[in-house]
Amino acid sequence: MSTDTGVTTSKSASSAAGERLLEVEHLTVKFPTADGLVNAVTDLSYGVARGQTLGIVGESGSGKSVSSMAVLGLHDPRRTRIEGSIRIDGQEVIGLSESRLRKIRGNSAAMIFQDALASLHPFYRVGKQLSEAYGAHHPKASARDGRRKAIEMLDLVGIPQPDRRVDDFPHQFSGGMRQRAMIAMGLINDPSLLIADEPTTALDVTVQAQILDLLGDLQREFDSAIIIITHDLGVIAEMADEVLVMYAGRAVEYGATRELLTHPEMPYTWGLLSSVPDVSADPDARLLPIPGNPPSLLDPPTGCSFHPRCVHVDKVPGDLCSTSTPELTPGGRGPGHLKRCHLADPDRIYATEVLPEIAPDLADGSATPAPSTATPSTTPPTTKEA
Amino acid sequence: MVSVQKESDATLTRHRSGGQPVLEVEDLKMYFPVKSSGLVRRTVGHVQAVDGVSFQVPAGGALGLVGESGCGKSTTGRLITRLHDPTSGAIRFEGTDLARLSPRQMKPMRRDVQMIFQDPFSSLNPRHTVGAIVSSPLVTHSMVPKDKVLSRVQELLEVVGLNPEHYNRYPNEFSGGQRQRIGIARALALQPKLLVADEPVSALDVSIQAQVVNLLEDLQKEFGIAFLFIAHDLGVVRHFCPEVAVMYLGKIVEIADRDTLYDRPHHPYTQALLSAVPDVKQAAIGGRRERIRIEGDVPSPINPPSGCRFRTRCFHAKEICARVEPPLMQIGRRHKVACHFPGELGKHPEEPVTARLLGVDDQGSPDPGGSPTDLGNPPGFSDTWFDLEKRTMAGARTTPGASANDTARDAG
Predict the structure, then answer these.
(1) A to B CB pairs, distance under 8 Å
(2) Which CATH superfamily is domain B9-32+45-262 in?
(3) Comparing C-alpha atoms, which of A242, A189, A231 is closest to residue A22?
(4) What's the gap in Å between the CA of A95 and the closest CA on chain B?
(5) Is the ipTM of this complex over 0.90?
């Protein structure tokens, strides 16, 4: 299948680190419900190497959280149908028994959840919860070892006076400190894979900046692979080496961050970029929202799942968009950049129709670092980026 | 240093066309009592949620209120709609002081001041149909005769882009963006002159946020509604509001027109806030953007730091900052900042510019020879301001009577 080869080549090109730590192939997750079968994730393939960061972007219901929960085996096998393959460091996760899974969880792969207050137990002291996570994978460790390790981790994530704060309850921590405690808990067993599910969504921008810096520092220190799930393209741009854009349970665009965000080839990614006002755009320019609403996963649209909201459907001959699902294939910009779209020349449409409207100066900035296959930018260059 | 007076003519005309302020807030304070535990619940302190806030919202214009959680921006919005009773201060809406009205007197005023809430999931009653939700303000205020209510509801639903045939449905049948439209339709039902929008898009998906922002923009143009737009998303606020106020721990630290605030902020907090926003354009360069790191968390509003409230996290804090509180001083035509060392990033002055005005020396100790000037805390902008380069009040300061602007109180 073309999907598979494309992904592999893209990865080997971008990461010199060699074998990828996490390998997800053709992952499909379905939930049977009273209303019917929910196709939460369909044929998803991606991977992360050590020391690399993958950003997963998408709206609520796009399957980004469901797919990463599958990596840790967090779905109830009785209520979930999972197909495909997930390998962490060569070890297949799907179909693993609960006791074997428990050895992986929190040890070689850990997760940081979005809402830190809901993810920490309100009755137990923060230090107790941290040392519990440590003790689970170090059965020989004494309570004192656990406490020492908890203090060490709280210090590492930048909590002041960790030897005193270790005995606090979660409600005594501020939002940013809770998220740090969550990160400390995720990192306490030195996992090689860290999945951060919207780690900063509930936080203020200054705290968000602190947490993102912390994640970056820790990654450099431990050489771990990080998956950041977010809807904030700014966070992706600053943190991720590669981006996976998801829509209605499928990967719709996948590639290196700089390449993908400067030359997106899928109308949904264009929509995401154009609907966010940033702090330097022209304030009088109208926002260009994506019309309509995300589709229901109970009854996904035929063909391309984005076609009911896509404004470029008429550029594809016939009713291809509504009848056949496009494959995730390399676009016109080399094998490292995959897209799921029928549009024949997305680069030209992006450069001539989308970019001038959303960010004329980005159009210029993107033209400079472009690889050999770059389409010449049709917008007049602005001096701002130069 | 770029002169602070140099402002584009476009900005100026935009403000001038805004006309008279529809809302004037002066020295507004809201202290929530903190009670002790036990049988006799004595008041042991106050949360100074809003502490002396002054601003204006022009008729048909928009003022943005940004800041981190706990800075008092939402409380300010709730005070203006009188969901809280303010501790002190004035909220003048078209000349009427809302802060002093009884609930009965307030009722007719509520027609003109409406609110859009953040969370479209908890702000709509799940047991009421959309028709009931949108029509209840119409019925309460007897806006239309009973037999016309339904047609008016359908009209409103159409205005906000919903199918008017859906008036019989329940909120759970709508998506987040559609629910927020229902909330907007409810706020529009009374044809308000001022809408307080408290984080109207932050609970929505990215692709839906733009739809709602565009809708609010259309409504503003069509009906001439003034907006107090409260949000923590600096990008959305910049897009929507020609004028923006930045709050920190219950106080406004900087207020300016959009271009000045985002391009030439003078307060260290504003600079740190702006530099913390992740930028999509960074993708072209890769890696993390250079930024001002501010350490730690927001201090408790029960026991705020002495002097300047931001000094505990400020990269430029000096001795004077702990001793004397910086006044919110006008330093440009439409630019006020509360800092002893106001300046563009990297160009903060070494000497406190406020010392002489406050009658203190450079370390903040009272200067026996100094004569403190009372700058006051007026809501609007004055025709005279403190020139940062010349260190004097610019404009006709010696003849305060000549100033035509009614808010030029601080000139005298």
Answers:
(1) 153
(2) P-loop containing nucleotide triphosphate hydrolases (3.40.50.300)
(3) A242
(4) 34
(5) no
